[in-house]
Amino acid sequence: MAKSNGWKEAIFITTQHVSLVQLAQHGDEQAFYQLIEQEQHKLYRMAYVYVQNENDAVEVFQQTIIRAYEGLPQLKEPHYFSTWLTRIIINVCKTYIAKKNTVQLVEPHTLEDFTSTTPTYIEEELDLWHSLCKLEEKYKTVLLLRFYQDYSVKDIAAILQYPEGTVKTNIRRGLQALRQQLKGAYIDEWVQSVERGH
User: What is the pTM of this model?
Assistant: First the structure.
């Protein structure tokens, strides 16, 4: 019974979300603000990860909101609003970074609490993060979305507009590159621990 109720609740939330998108598409500013409020933490975190500066992150976030508001009437499938919005902020981040000619990712402890505070854990997390920063853009982006933003392969494919096979290949090659850089077993433990959460 509880499972059935959970399923009904999920359907209700999805339906409610789509309704807000449709209202926003027809000029309802309050509906648009509600949608942004639901997504703002994820969007800001993504922006901050790329630009590593609070003022720049705010500017990227604001540019994303403007682009989303202007482009929303053209969104054909309202239930893809979240992935569409994430795609916009990634593109805004890349453009912004290219203009400033700085490609830096903020260290993870400034984004969220560590699950452990042992020195070894922190050292490994920072090694992992610094290695991620050094990867090619295509690998860095998919790994960031997969393991730090909790998106599925299907979602990442929709966000980046790549075939799912390409996303899987980039994730696999990105992880291989990380293993070559780190030369340690904890990278496999990290991947497994994240995957268990999905």
Answer: 0.64
Residue showing tokens 């509880």: 2
The domain defined by 109-198 carries CATH number 1.10.10.10:
yes
Query: Distance between CA 63 and CA 155 in Å, rounded?
Result: 23
User: How is residue 171 written in tokens?
Assistant: 């994730």
Q: Which percentage of the chain shows pLDDT scores above 70?
A: 71
Confidence class for position 34, pLDDT limits 50, 70, 90: very high
* CATH 1.10.1740.10 domain residues, the chain: 1-104
Residue 171: is its pLDDT beyond 60? yes
Output DSSP code: residue 161.
Answer: T
Exposure b/e, 71-83, CB count within 10 A at least 16 = b: ebeebeebebbbb
Q: 56 and 100 in contact (C-beta within 8 Å)?
A: yes
Band of pLDDT at residue 137, cut at 50, 70 and 90: confident
Q: Which CATH number fits domain 1-104: 1.10.1740.10, 3.40.50.300, 1.10.560.10, 3.40.350.10?
A: 1.10.1740.10
Q: Which two tokens stand for residue 19?
A: 């309704």
Q: Which residues contact 51 (CB under 8 A, 6 or more apart)?
A: 57, 60, 93, 96, 97, 100, 102, 104
